[in-house]
Amino acid sequence: MKTTLFTLLASIYLLFVSCNNNPPSQPTAITNCNLLTDSLLPIQYAKGFKIKYFSNFKLIEVYSPKDTSIRIQEYILYKDSIPASMADSKMAIYIRIPIQSVACFSTTHIAFLSTLNILDCITAVASINQTNNPSIKNRFEEGKIIEIGEADQIQFEKLADLHPQLIFSYEIPGSASVGNTLINKLKIPQIHVSEFLESHPLGQLEWIKFMAAFFDKEQLASHIFDSLNQEYNDLTKLTASVNNKPNVITSLPWKGQWHLPSGNSLITKYIEDAGGKYVMENNTSEGNLVLPIETVYEKALDADYWINTGIANSIQDILNTDQRLKNLPVLKKGKVFNNTAIVNQNGWSDYYESGVVNPNVILQDLIKILHPELLPNYQLHYYKKLE
Fold it and tell me: pLDDT tens digits, residue range 220-277?
């Protein structure tokens, strides 16, 4: 049942249009601003944004992750002229489209743009060492992409000289955004892409529509989403009737504390859809959990599987973090899997890059782990068993 993005993209190749390299002319203000019929782009799972279409521009509304009824940002995307009727919007950022050059601060941004077949628009990345994408590495070696650094190590002079039309960034709630005010001084629009705040795998994937809007690729993005949405939901039908739902523990303790996802997290949904039960599913605290190892250890005693073990790539690596773990039944049975089957030469896992556009593959991996009889001929992709 595994669908590769290559096969999917090949089937819709004629929908692709490469980035236009002709520089845009200066816009002039106009007043026509009629809302189009059926103006909302269908959004099924993502909670963080909406896209509305008007006669002469698109409006992207971004919502607070804490309260999705609160609008926190607007992006007005126009082609020929700035819509004068929207000029008084205090939260709006005006962007002329389609975009021709971007800087990406997250490898998930690379995955989205790769899926849309517009990698040639990327002219800068935060760290070339983090990506698993061979095309990005090749373009870097050819001098078509530069490395600009991360967070407080951003090389602003290089970014200013390059001056891409757009920066795809991210903002972690409760912390400063990547680049903060210094990027704003460069007068390069900074777009916060918040797919990582979605708690449903298909909600994360659906941010491909958000990214696509800046390149006039919504039709392609919707086609890709619909195909993977169908496959993902077909997979959930395999596990809908399973009677045995194995208990699953995640993450790895460190220095007496266990950092792990809460019960309303993305991995909780993956485990549920794969026919399992996350041992911390009832703890729905906001954000990740940081608990004493003794607290989680009691839960882990009942675990049938252990996944996403962080930096541990062997059973011995796990034992090296805390010798008390050797008494866990799940460890003795060897039912431990990590999402590090595909890593680059610097140790960065592709799970955290291309996984955002392959939720169906991640789900198949987890079904194969928890209920191997349901997918007898499937081979793990992102995951591997630890020895």
Answer: 999 999 999 999 999 999 999 999 999 999 999 999 999 999 999 999 999 999 999 9
* Confidence bin at 54 (pLDDT 50/70/90): very high
Residue 30 scores a pLDDT above 50: no
Q: What's the one-letter identity of residue 310?
A: G
In the sheet where 305-307 sits, what is the strand order? 277-278, 247-250, 305-307, 336-338, 384-385
**How far apart (Å, rounded) are the C-alpha atoms in residues 316 and 338?**
13
Cα separation, 125 vs 103, whole angstroms: 6
- Whether residue 161 lies inside any domain: the answer is yes
| Residue 90's CATH number | 3.40.50.1980
Look up residue 123 and give its two tokens. 């002219």
Residue 227 lies in a domain: no
DSSP 20: P
Predicted local distance difference test score (pLDDT) of residue 27: 39
Q: Take residue 81 and report the two structure tokens written for it.
A: 């002229």
Instruction: Domain count for the chain, please give it.
Output: 2
C-alpha separations of 142 from 19, 123, 135, 136 in Å: 19, 12, 10, 10
Q: What stretch of H or E contains 112? A: helix 107-115
